[in-house]
Amino acid sequence: GQNIDQPTEMTATEGAIVQINCTYQTSGFNGLFWYQQHAGEAPTFLSYNVLDGLEEKGRFSSFLSRSKGYSYLLLKELQMKDSASYLCAVRNTGGFKTIFGAGTRLFVKA
Amino acid sequence: ETGVTQTPRHLVMGMTNKKSLKCEQHLGHNAMYWYKQSAKKPLELMFVYNFKEQTENNSVPSRFSPECPNSSHLFLHLHTLQPEDSALYLCASSQGSGGDTQYFGPGTRLTVL
Question: What mean pLDDT value characterizes chain B?
Answer without folding.
Answer: 91
